[in-house]
Design a protein that fits this description.
Layout: E1 5-9, H1 18-24, E2 31-35, E3 46-49, E4 61-64, H2 74-80, E5 83-85, H3 92-108, H4 110-118, E6 137-141, H5 145-156, E7 160-164, E8 176-178, H6 183-187, E9 192-195, H7 209-214, E10 220-223, H8 232-240, E11 246-249, E12 269-271, H9 282-299
Parallel strand pairs: 1-2, 1-3, 3-4, 4-5, 6-7, 6-9, 7-8, 9-10, 10-11, 11-12
Helix pairs in contact: 3-5
Amino acid sequence: MRLDTLGVDESVSILFPPEILVEELAGLPVTTTVVNGSHGLDDCQAVVTFDYWDACDDLGWVHSIQSGVDQFPFDRMRAADVALTNSTGIHGDAIGETVAGYALAFSRRLHEHVANQGEATWSPPEWDDAWTVRGERACVVGLGTLGRGVVDRLTGLGVEITGVRRTPTPEPGVDEVYTPSELRDAVSNARFVVAAVPLTDDTRGLLDADVLAAMREDAYLINVARGAVVDQPALVSALEDGEIAGAALDVFETEPLPDSSPLWGMDEVIVSPHCAGFTHRYHKHVGSIVAENVERLQVGNDLINRVV
């Protein structure tokens, strides 16, 4: 495809100002400009975006600033011959550190101390409430880029790792790899169960009531994947009934999480606003993928991170 003008859609502002990505890409042999949805795309052949607009049907290439692309209309894009690439591969460090933070918050009771600070309450934990993560086990469901970042951070803290992915091939740092059909066995001996899979037809509702019931009563669920990977009503029931100890949730079935959700008021639940992958260098990471693909288009090579 011919590429003269690349748009950066204002929807990327959910993660960074579009202007700083334009500045990051200033050295490319194409014109890079900020666009607003369908406004400004007429002069573009490609766009970097968070959302998909009707006008994207007329482009040759769309790049998603996320790794998850479940919001993009694959069939429609194929019919319109629009290539879709994503930002997979850039989130491992941020996601891994966030998951480690959740695990340490629960074990060292840091979430309780933060809540107590807001009430000006001096309340040390009971002698047997706090614990250390060294020697505990985490089951990481999904061993792609996100899961790899989680494995690297948790093994550095002395956590033993079990993994789950479609093919049970060995993975460095992972003691045993299960397939999704063995998920209940995989989670049964873990203190932390970490969801790090993309949302697909196969992973929607993957962590359901049966899987939650298979978890230990002192186990914590951590979801940095997509909200729909977890059966949220089943999770609420498991938490209310004490079937699991707690959860750290960065993603939800409905976002923002509705005010009426009981998850807000649960002491052993950490709610964060879909920000586990945030970093001040996010635009640079996205820019490196975009720049590589612009150069590939110039010489007729295949795009990297192509989804459609």
